[in-house]
Amino acid sequence: MKKDIVIDTFPLLSTSSLETREWLLNIATEHDYPSGRAVLMEDAWGNAVYFIVSGWVKVRRTHGEESFTIAILGPGDFFGEMAVLDESPRSTDVVSLSKVKLLSVSRESFLQILFQDSHLHHRMLQLMVGRIRQINLRLQMRLSPPAVKLAHILVSLTDSYSQESEQVQKIFNIPLKDLAEVTEISLEETTKIMEKLAEKEWIKIDTANNTINLINYTQLAVLASKI
């Protein structure tokens, strides 16, 4: 039920007016998907902006019959905004990694409120600049050791999506193939590094809750900084 959704959990809406947040919640459409379901096909970009209420998704780039993961998004994040703004075709799709609840706001409604609420407009620019900086950082890291690149991804995901109230910071247990692709290292390297991090007790895979627990976040952050 939309009334149970805490709209303040979305960073994009953190500075927008109360009227904006209530209006968006009222006009938004709810979507529930099981794990492994395509939630946005490549020919559907530009129709709406999507907010992740709960769960995790991956963004895949497709080339013919092949596809590879280019981003992992978690609770509170959003996607589809670039296609709404520039209306260009996309060769990407979005697939759920877990059970997912989304809210979608149509292109027309989102553009309407975006230009009415200057705080929302400014906040969206801030977050988009942040994403560009992350892309630039990943480009700089292409020659970094695989362990550094993987630590950077784990720390970035934790910083973005781990709950501050949790005693141990944790993220969704992302499949190793997707983790390898988004890190741009081989599956074999990813498997070995994750095993080594577990041996050092820097991380722990909680299979019961399907999470990666970052037991020693500080050491991971130090490793991630060695670009």
TrEMBL record:
PROSITE patterns: CNMP_BINDING_3 (PS50042)
Pfam families: cNMP_binding
Entries under CDD domains matching the protein: CAP_ED (cd00038)
InterPro entries: cNMP-bd_dom, cNMP-bd_dom_sf, Env_Response_Regulators, RmlC-like_jellyroll, WH-like_DNA-bd_sf, WH_DNA-bd_sf
Domain Cyclic nucleotide-binding: 12-131
Record protein name field: Crp/Fnr family transcriptional regulator
Organism field: Dolichospermum heterosporum TAC447
Phylogenetic lineage: Bacteria, Bacillati, Cyanobacteriota, Cyanophyceae, Nostocales
